[in-house]
Design a protein that fits this description.
Elements lengths: L2 H18 L10 H13 L2 H13 L14 H22 L18
Length: 112
């Protein structure tokens, strides 16, 4: 990567962090809000499903985290961390929260 490209990439990352680094969840954000948000993000559009497929492939959803021989414990730990991210996504969007939402406390657009 050229120095010019590296500088441009750093500026882009700085802009990204400035934009998203201060994000917070709304007060009262519930497991039901997360359930709906994750399902809307990953299951309701073609680009969401494609993104989910990329994450599944890249984050060891369907393959071993034991990479190469001899086994490098640091590489395995990093791969397990990636795998935990995709498992969190799947657990959040596929497992309905046990407690039903209170209509008055739902922060999302949809209410049940």
């Amino acid at each position: 990567m050229s120095e010019e490209n590296a500088d441009a990439a750093l500026k882009e990352m700085d802009a990204f962090l400035e934009l998203y680094g201060g994000l917070t969840l709304p007060e009262g954000y519930s497991a039901w809000d997360a359930y709906r948000d994750f399902r809307n993000t990953f299951l309701e559009s073609d680009h969401g499903r494609r993104t989910l497929k990329v994450l599944m492939d890249d984050c060891f959803m369907r393959k071993s985290t034991l990479l190469g021989r001899p086994i490098d414990s640091l590489r395995v730990a990093a791969a397990e961390g990636q795998r935990n991210v995709i498992l969190k996504i799947f657990n959040t969007m596929l497992e309905e929260p046990k407690e039903k939402p209170d209509r008055q406390n739902v922060t999302g657009q949809e209410q049940e």
